[in-house]
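Lab notes, practical 5.
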Amino acid sequence: MIAFLRKLKSFFSPQSNAQQNQPQSLVKYRVGLNTIIDNCNIANQTSIGANCYLYKTSISDFTYLAVNVSVMNTVIGKFCSIAQGVSICTGRHPSSTFVSTHPAFFSPHAQCGITFATESHFKEMGQTTIGNDVWIGTNAIIMDDIIIGDGAIIGAGAIVTKNVPPYAIVAGNPAKLLRYRFEKNEIDFLLAYKWWEKDPSWIKENYKHFHDIKSFMKNFDTNQ
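Output from the prediction step:
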């Protein structure tokens, strides 16, 4: 039990790299040890596990990242669940025309400590958008310039190379559509209702209705 508590303490240390230079009154989210957060916007009530790397990324309320997650140039919505080992917006290398795929020939950033390029000759990174209430499984990879719709589920180990529709379940390499979580009328209602924009007090009061889509619609769909 003591070993478990020590592990839990290290996972969410209040003196992590990202937080140690901030006044405690300004810290509204939890960050694990050895996590690097560079030029990001992190909302309240979020949790970021140990050994993560975040760069130019925005994370909205109530979203959590497990351990060993890498995210760059990405906008992440509310109530997202991102499992361990996930990589989002991993960057690009040229695969045609250029003689070499190595960044020393097209990037001025000297990724290996040296570069021959004095300016950028190739778009190295796009922008990825993750909607609200998205669940991304362990070790999934989301490529650049991808849009993941609200309510989608990405299976463990999936490699996502195309946009994912709202409330779709995708898996595999490359990721393919397995099915949708709900019927079309239910999806349309959820996308219009946008429950994730409700005040947390409303969500707390009504959380039991979230256990059943039909109960949820019965109570909150005014068109029924």
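Observations recorded by the TA: The chain has two domains: 2-91+126-181, 184-224. DSSP finds four helices and 17 strands in the chain.
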